[in-house]
Amino acid sequence: MFEKNDLSALVNEIRSLLNEQSFSCASLLNTALASVTSNITHNVSKSVPACVFLPEAATSIDGPVGLIISSQWDKLAWRVPGFGMINTSISDRIAVTELVGPTGMIKHDSVSMGLLLMAPNLRYPSHSHAAEELYIVLSGTIEWTIQDKSIGALMPKMAVRHKPWQPHEMKTRDAPALLFWGWTGDIRSETYRMN
User: For 19-36, what is the HEC assignment?
Assistant: First the structure.
């Protein structure tokens, strides 16, 4: 079970990461995190196949956020991504957890945020959704494509923002990658689609 103190510490570290970003959605996510009470409303740890890559991905994160995640990742509720729309040969190599949001460990109705893990040498196919989205790379290196244009490789502490409905895809290199993600605006999961 993920303890309230650990979750509070993780929320504070994520707020620090968000403070370093200039995107307006980072400010919205940070404001939402400042308002949460860290009252854990849903706390059932769950693992999915991709979680085998979590120890490597988490221990390569510098700083306090890395220490928290590497010691607590197995207490989070992980699931496969894509809301059932991604082929299992891909979705079984990705894991996502919602820390804050409608179904998150901390309930929030207007934002959704958490962690995304991708196995090495994996392409997450082009997809889009109504939510504005922010990613911050915590570990690994990821090739990023937005609207069929490569924006290059993102490394730890680098961030990328997607506008609502903007198609995007990612590809990891030889190491797993762990990222923070956050949705603002229309965060309904039913708007998610593969392109």
Answer: HCCCCHHHHHHHHHHHHC
Q: Would the pLDDT of 1 be above 60?
A: no
Model pLDDT for residues 10-57, shown as the tens digit of each residue: 888 999 999 999 999 999 999 998 887 666 666 667 889 999 999 999
Domain range spanning residue 47?
4-194
CATH of the domain at 44: 2.60.120.10
d(CA 142, CA 131): 21
What is the total count of domains within the chain? 1
Q: pTM, whole model, 2 decimals?
A: 0.93
Whether 194 and 85 have beta carbons less than 8 Å apart is answered as yes
**Degrees to nearest 5, angle at CA 100 with 96 and 105:** 80
Beta carbons of 117 and 180 less than 8 angstroms apart: no
Asked if residues 129 and 164 have their Cβ atoms less than 8 Å apart, the reply is yes
Q: Is the dihedral of CA 54, 181, 105, 78 positive or negative?
A: negative
* Main-chain phi, psi angles of 121, to 5 degrees: 50, 50
d(CA 55, CA 74): 9
Place of tokens 């990742």: 73
